[in-house]
Amino acid sequence: MIGMAILQPVVALAAWTMVMWFWMYATRIPALMASKVDPDELVRDPNKSLDAVLPAQVQWKAHNYNHLHEAPTVFYAVAIVLAMVGAGDGLNALLGWAYVALRVVHSLVQATVNKVTVRFVIFVLSSLVLVALIVHAAMVVF
């Protein structure tokens, strides 16, 4: 079908989000058990959080999982618009894959070494790719 190639990076990023979900719980559950914290106590006390209880390296995965539900939601919407109007092939599909690659690299940096300046550069690059996709969608629909 014409214009549907951009849906491949959409599915890839959704799948990557689930990889981060598994990684988050694979590290968080053992850390929670080791900390012997009562999770119900955390929700009753506004001064307590998992960030205060669990090691930072464990929480990095959770923070990234949350990040994958922020800016990427705009990517999903724009990619679906581009597919619907038949403009999701060629350069737009390539930009979609670039966006996904940058988000995966961002995840790996945040979940492992968590260098903020490196993450910021990757985030800016992915945002510029997203802006290009938005501009391309705007040129088609307006």
TrEMBL record:
The record's Pfam families line, in alphabetical order, gives: MAPEG (PF01124)
Asked if the keyword Membrane belongs to this entry, the reply reads: yes
Print the keywords alphabetically. Answer: Membrane, Transmembrane, Transmembrane helix
Transmembrane ranges, per UniProt, are 6-26, 74-100, 120-141
The protein's name: MAPEG family protein
- Where is this gene product found? Membrane
What broad class describes the main subcellular location of this protein? membrane
